[in-house]
Amino acid sequence: MPFNGIEYSINEQNTVILLKKACPYCDKSYQSNQKAANHIVSIHQKKVDRLVSGNRSFGMYNKANIQKYERLGFSIVVHYGCVSCKETFAVKEALRKHCDLIHIISSQPGNGYLKYFV
Length: 118
Ligand SMILES: [Zn+2]
Ligand SMILES: [Zn+2]
Prior knowledge:
This is C2H2-type domain-containing protein. One of its GO terms (molecular function) is zinc ion binding. Residues 80-103 form the C2H2-type domain. Keywords: Metal-binding, Zinc, Zinc-finger. The chain is an alpha/beta fold. It has one domain. It contains four helices and six strands. It has helices at residues 33-43, 63-71, 92-103, 113-117, and strands at 15-20, 47-48, 59-60, 75-81, 88-89, 104-106. It has a four-stranded mixed sheet. A hairpin with a 6-residue loop joins strand 4 (75-81) and strand 5 (88-89). The longest helix is centred in the C-terminal third of the chain and has 12 residues, at 92-103. 16% of the residues are buried. It binds zinc ion (2 copies). One zinc ion is lined by residues 82, 84-85, 87, 98, 102-103.
C-alpha cells in the first residue's frame, strides 16, 4: 500500500534509531559481527572478545530502512553498534573507547585466533 501522506499523522518529534555496523577504528562498515571481528584483528591487530549476541531493538541502518522511515516522516538517528555486545553508541568515539576498554583482550595478532573466530 503506497503511503500518500494522509493515513498517518506524522509527529515531527518522531525519531527512529537505526543501527550502523561500523568498525570502531576506521570508517569501514560491515554486515556481521563476525566479519567485523576478523577485520579488526587483521587490520588493527586488536582481538575483541565475543559475547553472546542477541537481538538489538533497533533496525539496521541500510537503504531499505532509511527509505522506509523517511517516507513515514521519521527523523533518523544513527547509532553505532558494538561488535561484541549489544551496546550502542550515538558517537563513534564512545564506541571505540568502549571496545578498547571492555572487549580488547589482546593486541597480539595470531595468538589463539581460531579460538575466538570459529
Ligand atoms: Zn577498521
Ligand atoms: Zn560492547
